[in-house]
Amino acid sequence: MSPSRISACARRGTARLPAALVLAALVLAGASASAEPVKHLKPEDYSSRIVAGRKGRVLVVNFWATWCEPCREEMPSLVAAAKKFPARDLAVVLVSLDSQKTGPAQVPKFLKAQKVPFVSWLARTRDPQDFIDAVDPNWDGSLPYTLLYGRDGKVAARLSGLQTEASFTEAIRKAVGAR
Amino acid sequence: MKLPGLAPAAFATFATVLTLGLAAPAPAQKPEAPKIGAVAPDFTLPPAAGGAPVALKDLLAKSKAVVVIFDATKCPYAKGYKERVATMGKEYAGKGVTFVTINSNKTEPAAEVAEDAKKHGFAFPVLKDEGNKVADLYAAQKTPEIYVLDPKGTLLYRGRIDETHEDPKNVKSPDLRNALEAILAGKPVPAAETKAFGCSIKRV
């Protein structure tokens, strides 16, 4: 999969679709998640492979790890929040900071079990600080951490720590609305 | 509720109201971390295994430096460093440096912390921070997260042990060890702040 296919957000129905049909479509979209192998991401490739892949959309990048309890806890909230926005407005990508030893097996296993419809990259770095600083020097390294990029590619919001569906939705709505 | 019959505009309004109604309160501001060069807060905590409470000021009074480590029993990152912490604790005790670990996780009871410390041969105070009060005082967020203090309680180093939890034989950036060697030599710490990486502290 190319970096441009990083969005896996379900589309919300158009104005002509009845709401029930829309809800049914959302459920089906969520159930179509598959366990794709993770792609490895070097710190120096973060901007070109992740941020540049947004193609004029708002981009949510969620940094997580399978060993991170609040990361696992908030994942359904991110999935639910993302489904409220059409794919033409929003792209979502995950970046795991699992280790190179366990991540390639653990990350797809978790995403499949939880039916998470997003692609996850795996940070390829021996030193987490190198990766953290390359992504955002303001990030203290805590997980989970979520960056929202506006359509212009600039950081629109930083969400540190456990989020809720409401807090994800609010942050995305602000970024999407600021055309 | 007649969702299917709602006009798009009404549905949007409904969704907005619902969203606003469910909006979580703004997350609490993180407490400010002690600054490098400032005096870190004193604390007194009970040992996880029981016994008399341990006061930081008493440890400072008998040490050339005190290494405060926020630790965990289940976190894979903290587990990856257990052997190094035990080894360095013993090694630096002979040089006048006191190690102390603090477990602030609400999910890890004192008995479990004591058992874990015994299993790994921690030969220094292992304290339980019920209610994560000391973690809050220090604005500690992760395990393992390190604070090194001089005898006056001045913070000289904050951050990580080194850059790899899973490859102890190939450490390239032994940040804690570098800090301690500099302090014992009376020199400035080369990298006084590094970014700790690990599990978040499970707070009440």
Explain this structure to me?
The complex is a heterodimer of chains A (179) and B (204). Chain A contains six helices and six strands; from the N terminus they run αβαβαβαβαββα. The N terminus of chain A is likely disordered. Chain A has 179 residues and is α/β, with parallel strands linked by helices. The two termini of chain A are 28 Å apart. Chain A is globular and about 40 Å long. Chain A has one domain: Glutaredoxin. The N terminus of chain B is likely disordered. At the A-B interface, helix 1, helix 5 and helix 6 of A face helix 1 and strand 9 of B.
Distance between the termini of chain B: 38 Å
Tally of DSSP β-strands of chain A: 6
What is the level 1 CATH name of chain A?
Alpha Beta
H/E element string of chain B? HEEHEHEHEHEEEHE
* Low-confidence parts of chain B: 1-28
Strand content of chain B: 15-25%
Gyration radius of chain A, in Å = 15 Å
CATH H level, superfamily name of chain B:
Glutaredoxin
Strand content of chain A: 15-25%
On the 0 to 100 scale, the average pLDDT of chain A is 84
Q: What's the assembly state of these chains?
A: heterodimer
CATH architecture of chain B: 3-Layer(aba) Sandwich
Strand order, largest beta sheet of chain B: 5-4-3-7-8
What is the residue-mean pLDDT of chain B, rounded to a whole number? 88
Q: Encode the helix/strand succession of chain A as letters.
A: HEHEHEHEHEEH
Q: What overall form of chain A do the CA principal axes indicate?
A: globular
Q: How many whole angstroms does the radius of gyration of chain B measure?
A: 21 Å
